[in-house]
UniProtKB/TrEMBL annotation:
The keyword Zinc-finger does not apply. SUPFAM superfamilies: P-loop containing nucleoside triphosphate hydrolases. This is P-loop containing nucleoside triphosphate hydrolases superfamily protein. InterPro entries: P-loop_NTPase (IPR027417), PRK/URK (IPR006083). It comes from Actinidia rufa. Keywords: Hydrolase. Residues 27-130 form the Phosphoribulokinase/uridine kinase domain.
Length: 144
């Protein structure tokens, strides 16, 4: 898998670096069923993109933390809240099938992505598996 992660990362960095506008942003989406490995793939690619970007675009002092240019924004933060599942026609099924497409809030995701595109940064929700609900404004995404 490392070869695939490397190839994808090596394809993204030159494309992003070639942009003539500093405000141009790349948003890359991954689709797949629950448990397919989307978060793993995204994390691996983001780690590599940040490392490659640092190596190819900047010459920083080794004591300085390199900039983060890629961030993972997981879909988990866009789950419907448990209280929203409780309000559905069949709350028991809604809780049992959490993770199915209809248990997410796509309008909220779209609003977040539009804000990111228009403003350049956004605070997005994460998901706390301990409490079983999204955590608002827990992930800072800054597209440089």
């Amino acid at each position: 898998m490392d070869e695939i992660y490397d190839a994808l990362s090596e394809r993204l960095v030159p494309t992003a670096a070639a942009s003539s506008s500093p405000n141009f942003k790349h948003i890359v989406g991954l689709a797949g069923s629950p448990g397919a490995g989307k978060s793993t793939v995204a994390s691996e690619i983001v780690q590599r993109v940040n490392k490659l970007w640092f190596k190819t675009s900047y010459s920083f002092d080794s004591q300085v933390e390199p900039p983060v240019v890629a961030t993972v924004l997981p879909m988990d933060g866009f789950h419907l809240y448990r209280h929203q599942l409780d309000e559905m026609e069949d709350p028991e099924e809604a809780h049992a099938r959490r993770g199915a497409p209809w248990t997410f809030d796509p309008e909220r995701l779209l609003k977040c992505l539009k804000s990111l595109r228009n403003q350049g940064s956004v605070y997005a929700p994460s998901f706390d598996h301990g409490i079983g609900d999204p955590v608002e404004d827990d992930i800072f995404v800054n597209l440089q």
